[in-house]
Amino acid sequence: LAWVGVADASYGFLTRMNRDLVAQQLHTELAALLGHGTSRERLTRLEDVLRPMYVSLPKKKDGGIDQGMARYALNRYFSAHRGWHITGISYDGKRWNESSSTTLLKSEMPAFIVEVLEEHVAHKRLGLGELAVLAATVEDLVHSEAFELLSMAYEAQNLSIHEALEDESQEDRVMMTFVLFYLMPWTQKARNDSSALDRAIKRAYRNRDWNLAMLWSDDLKGAIKYESQVGHNPFSKTSAHFGTYPLMSRLVEQFIDGYGMFQDNQCRELKNVLMDLEGWERNDGRVLLSNFYSPYLQDVHHYFLERPEYLRNLGSLDETDPNRPSVIVPNYLYGRNFCMATDSGIQSFCCVDQCNALMEALERSIAHPVASPGLIAELVEALPSDTVAAPRNLSSSLRWKLDTIAEQHGGHVPLHGRLFAQWMHHAFPNECEQPRAPGMTEAPMTHTEWRAHRNTSSDVSKEVMQELADLAAKTEGLGCQDETCMLWTQEEELVSSIDLTVLDSRTDHKVRQALRFLAMLGAGAALISILFDSLRLSTFWTEVAKKSAFGTGDSPSRLYLL
To answer: Residue 348: beta bridge partners?
Structure first.
């Protein structure tokens, strides 16, 4: 979107967004798709990222995907590559292919994007190019919200977007205010009161989320300034800063695009803290609820305070054994409880779903909506995660479960359905979520939403913590803690309504040989990627430990407690 158009938008414009604006944005992206426009290169990059997943999705007779698959694919893209939760696209308790409301509300805007796109093409085929257009348009909407807050930050600092900033001090004040408004939306009420705004900024210094975001902003500014100075006179005394609104908009856009992946390092730290609550012998991706609360009872830290009812809403409470309830690690990490900027608009930042990378590796190798149990087993045996070593031999239990899925689908295993997602949770219990049982339609809530809907805190009382600890002590040593004892249900729910029985699994000998070779290469690349992810920001996080302020703050996210 052109920054000039966004700059003139009034506060809250997305709540009044109509089909004309969506159509205008889509027209721009579609023009680029056809080769006319400056966004063609951007769409090509999106197509390259989306292609492995798209190729593996079930197709209609016209060769395109249906709306349910488009929503599913976009959710995975934004979660895996942006760390974004998009209202109207992300999981909300409904089936992926369930029809959305047609009201002109902000929360339903992504549904209109699909509808308007279909109106702009001669037929209702959603191909890879159209999927890339959808992703680009949603990104444009997210950037639009950010630009609106940037304009508000200028106004709050009594600065004009039509005049250049005088120095880096003004630049810092604007960016500081933007981050404040973005991560702590309730502070926007202070935009017309300079004293109240100053107090809000002083309080923000006690919030770790805000401090980390400012460090990320400073890091981005340095990188962008370095790029802009390449080719310039090194002896020039001109001060390099983001003097104009377009340059500040570029900074904000890159901040929004990259912050989700940056803050995911805190999620990974949290995952390690969770897993340390159980012994190494437990490998089912669960933490006994009494152990979950034990750090609080022992006054070690106050990270994990969610009440059982709230954990149940998140889908992260395993009550298979009512005497020994457990927290499901990936369901807890990827839940709405750790999302940030949840009141800013259609987009918020959440922990990155690590299962997406594993699914992409399988989709890249299989390149088909279904596969034989044997082929999937071969590929998964060579696929590592940050808690599962490879190569490995799958257990007889995992192989049996694959076979039971195939029995329901004529000998093939659909890659995009509830049963295979459940199997991936059993194969990678710390990375892949346990899918919800069909019929559970309540949308996962943030802490704020829980308080608003239930009129009670999402925190558990100390008395309930102690009761669970006493119950666990009475049943200590009982129960099973490995993959063979994990809950397994046979209810299937496919993402697409397309008939998969007409598809053949690609089990040809030559194809299997080629895929086996690719899987070996992929496993090596994935392992290198995991090691790189663990090391790439070590220097930065050392600096964070020195600079970051630790306190309780006001953020609804609990990540600042780490």
So the answer is: 85
Please tell me the distance from the alpha carbon of residue 385 to that of residue 233, in angstroms, as a whole number: 47
Q: What is the pLDDT of residues 320-356, one digit of tens each?
A: 888 889 999 999 999 998 888 766 678 889 999 999 9
What single-letter DSSP state applies at residue 484?
A: G
- Exposed (0-12), middle (13-18) or buried (19+): which is 542, by Cβ within 10 Å? exposed
**DSSP string across 454-496:** HSS-SBPPHHHHHHHHHHHHHTTT-S--SGGGS-------BS-
* H helices present in 87-167, as ranges: 109-120, 128-156
Q: Which pair of structure tokens corresponds to residue 519?
A: 């899987």
Q: Confirm if 134 and 149 have CB atoms less than 8 A apart.
A: no
At 341, list the tokens. Answer: 């900027």
Quote the distance between the C-alpha of residue 402 and its chain's center.
Answer: 27
CB 288 within 8 A of CB 303: no
AA identity, residue 233? N
pLDDT band for position 151 (cuts 50, 70, 90): very high
Give the three-class secondary structure for 135: helix
Q: Is 88 exposed, middle or buried (0-12, 13-18, 19+ CB in 10 A)?
A: buried
Distance, CA of 136 to CA of 113 (rounded, Å): 11
Distance CA 102, CA 328 (A): 35
Residue 106 parent element (H or E): none
Element (H, E) at 348: strand 347-349
Asked whether the beta carbons of 371 and 406 are under 8 A apart, the reply is no
Percentages (nearest 5) of helix, strand, coil residues in the chain:
55, 5, 40
Q: If we measure between CA atoms, which residue out of 364, 358, 365 comes closest to residue 516?
A: 365
Half-sphere CA count of 132, side-chain side, radius 13 A? 24
Long-range contacts of 330-334 (CB under 8 A, 24+ apart): 330/285, 330/354, 330/355, 330/425, 330/429, 330/430, 330/431, 330/432, 330/433, 330/434, 331/433, 331/434, 332/274, 333/267, 333/270, 333/271, 333/274, 334/433
- Count the neighbouring beta carbons within 10 Å of the beta carbon of residue 404: 15
Token representation of residue 358: 């594993």
Token look-up 């976009």 returns 74
CA terminus-to-terminus distance, the chain = 37
Phi, psi of 14 (to 5 degrees): -65, -25
**Is 405 in contact with 413 (CB distance < 8 Å)?**
yes
Global pTM reads 0.80
Average pLDDT, the chain: 78
DSSP 3-state assignment of 347? Answer: strand
Please calculate the CA angle 179-183-185 and round it to the nearest 5 degrees.
Answer: 105
Average pLDDT over residues 96-107: 41
Give the single-character DSSP code of 335: S
pLDDT tier at 559, thresholds 50, 70, 90: very low
For residue 9, the Cα-to-chain-centroid distance in whole angstroms is 28
Cβ atoms within 10 Å, residue 549: 14
Contact 91, 78 (CB under 8 A): no
Please count the other Cβ atoms lying within 10 Å of the Cβ belonging to residue 417. Answer: 23
> Which of 136-140, 205-209, 372-376 has maximum average pLDDT?
372-376
d(CA 304, CA 266): 14
pLDDT at residue 267, as a whole number = 92
